[in-house]
Design a protein that fits this description.
By secondary structure, the protein is α/β, with parallel strands linked by helices. The chain contains 5 helices and 5 strands; from the N terminus they run βββαβαβααα. The chain has a single domain, classed as 2-Layer Sandwich (Nucleotidyltransferase, domain 5). It has helices at about 40-60, 75-95, 105-115, 120-130, 140-175; strands at about 1-5, 10-20, 25-35, 65-70, 100-105. The longest helix has about 35 residues, at about 140-175. The protein starts with a strand and ends with a helix. Its cofactor is Mg(2+). Belongs to the RuvC family. It catalyses: Endonucleolytic cleavage at a junction such as a reciprocal single-stranded crossover between two homologous DNA duplexes (Holliday junction).
Length: about 180
């Protein structure tokens, strides 16, 4: 399974593609950050993010997209930009008919580090270890995008198998 993880943000939108499956080593395919300047109007910044995500979807052809679920913070201007970038990511993936999952920051932290309260350095260190990298991806938004992709492979893949097994069970019940 190939997953594009997206850590949405208006200034820095992290993108990371990971390939693998549960129980097997995961492989880093690519990682980067789309940057926009606060000096540019928000609509133009969102267009830049959309074009960047579209290019990654075209280039890497993921099987699924995992986006960080927006959560309430005390700084409403930060959450607004994150929500706008998240919406762009969701629309870009949905337009292609890709499966989309959202994961909360604490779910991602728990999946990669074992603790939902892990800090950015711990998440970066675990992403480095899981993907067998020489150094943590920089900036932290890039590592967070990879952590989202890892979480989806580990959790989303398991959920997909459960859903498929339940569907088979329902069909078997109808044919009896």
């Amino acid at each position: 399974m190939r997953v594009l993880g997206i850590d949405p943000g208006l200034t820095r939108c992290g993108l990371g593609v990971v390939e693998g499956s549960i129980g097997r080593p995961l492989t880093l395919i690519d990682v980067n950050v789309i940057r926009t300047s606060a000096d540019v109007p928000i609509a133009q910044r969102l267009v830049t993010i959309e074009k960047g995500i579209d290019a990654w979807l075209d280039e890497h052809r993921p099987d699924a997209v995992a986006v960080e679920r927006v959560f309430a913070r005390s700084d409403s201007s930060t959450i607004m930009g994150t929500a706008q970038a998240s919406g762009i990511a969701l629309v870009a993936a949905a337009r292609r008919g890709l499966p989309i999952a959202t994961h909360t920051p604490s779910e991602v932290k728990a999946a990669v580090s074992g603790s939902g309260r892990a800090d950015k350095a711990q998440v970066g260190a675990m992403v480095t270890r899981i993907l067998r990298l020489d150094a943590p991806p920089k900036p932290a938004d890039a590592a967070d995008a990879l952590a989202l992709a890892i979480t989806h492979i580990w959790r989303g893949g398991a959920q997909a198998r459960i859903d498929a097994a339940l569907a088979v069970q329902r069909l078997a019940g109808r044919t009896r």
